[in-house]
Specification:
- The protein is of the alpha+beta class and 330 residues long.
- The protein folds into two domains: 49-178, FAS1 domain; 193-322, FAS1 domain (Roll).
- The protein has 16 helices and 14 strands.
- Strand 10 and strand 11 form a beta hairpin.
- The longest helix is centred in the N-terminal third of the chain and has 18 residues, at 2-19.
- It is elongated.
Length: 330
């Protein structure tokens, strides 16, 4: 009897176990995939003028000439420089044998002079070049300038050398591409150094200053032995004077006032840029001082008139170019 009862309990336990809900198996945790790293290109290092010319492929002759002249390090320097770069085709158009001759070691200086004649100090973008229409621009070849002409939207240097590509920017300046090689003038007249007045007349940026000097009767003085240092305002500097000021100054009855203003732009002696930066003030020929301030490598006279071009040497002194007209204190 007891055995039957025990057997019944076992059967009932088995039935209940079979009817119980089955446990849901727990899934093993799935590892999250690592984020995919997308490779990024490192920003390109800024290239110098020489590096760009080498990489471009259109300037193999120019690069060879720069290396032969020993100018590669200079044009890879801080600058900034503006380089008018002749293409290989431009060099190929030179008279037969010219390039081979220039690349000879004994003609290294002549080659360097030609290359420096293609370089303008500073970073002169295309918009600035077109603003020089009808004017002359100083080159890195001392005492030599190039003429700029704008015709039908194109820029020409020395009348017939065309700028065909502009504004190739480099870490130390800018390249403009030209279709012929520029040759510096070598005739005796070009080699002769002009006096301050003749230099100002030939430059083209100082037509108003020249007119004022003539109206004040100072042309003969500034053509004299000197030496003089002239801080020369550009035509744009005179144009920025209050309306009617210049017309008034050019009247015969205001000749003394005009003379005083012009003499306030003149120092006695040959004061080069390296001398100017060491000054805090300097007496002018008028007898009144101008103040000198150097900030971030730029020179300012009377606080806010900037010297924008320096050391234009003449036979009787030196010219430094200003962006505004200096007015003597009353």
């Amino acid at each position: 009897m007891k055995s039957r009862f025990l057997f019944g309990l076992i059967v009932m336990s088995l039935v209940l176990a079979a009817c119980a809900p089955q446990a849901t198996p727990t899934a093993a945790p799935t590892a999250m995939p690592e984020p995919t790293v997308i490779p990024t290109e490192a920003p390109a290092e800024p290239q110098s003028i020489v590096d760009i010319a080498v990489a471009d492929g259109r300037f193999t002759t120019l690069v060879a000439a720069v290396q032969a002249a020993g100018l590669a390090e200079t044009l890879s320097g801080e600058g900034p420089f503006t380089v008018f770069a002749p293409t290989d085709d431009a060099f190929a158009a030179l008279p037969a044998g010219t390039l081979d001759s220039l690349l000879l070691p004994e003609n290294k200086q002549q080659l360097a002079d030609i290359l420096l004649y293609h370089v303008v100090p500073g970073k002169v973008m295309a918009a600035d070049v077109t603003g020089l229409d009808g004017k002359m621009a100083d080159t890195a070849l001392e005492g030599r300038q190039i003429g700029v002409k704008v015709d039908m939207g194109s820029v020409y240097l020395n009348e017939n050398t065309k700028v065909i590509i502009t504004d190739i920017e480099a870490s130390n300046g800018v390249i403009h591409v030209i279709d012929t090689v520029l040759l510096p003038p070598t005739d005796e007249a070009a080699m002769e150094t002009k006096d301050i007045v003749d230099t100002a007349v030939a430059d083209g940026r100082f037509t108003t200053l020249v007119a004022a000097v003539q109206a004040a009767g100072l042309a003969e003085t500034l053509k004299g032995e000197g030496p003089f240092t002239v801080f020369a305002p550009t035509d744009e500097a005179f144009a920025a004077l209050p309306a009617g000021t210049l017309d008034s100054l050019l009247l015969p009855e205001n000749k003394q006032q005009l003379t005083d203003i012009l003499l306030y732009h003149v120092l006695s002696g040959n004061v080069m840029a390296s001398d100017v930066v060491g000054l805090t003030s300097s007496p002018t020929v008028l007898g009144k001082d101008i103040t000198v301030r150097v900030q971030d490598g730029n020179v300012y006279l009377n606080d806010n008139v900037q010297v924008i071009i320096t050391d234009i040497e003449t036979s009787n002194g030196v010219i430094h170019v200003l962006d505004a007209v200096l007015l003597p204190p009353q």
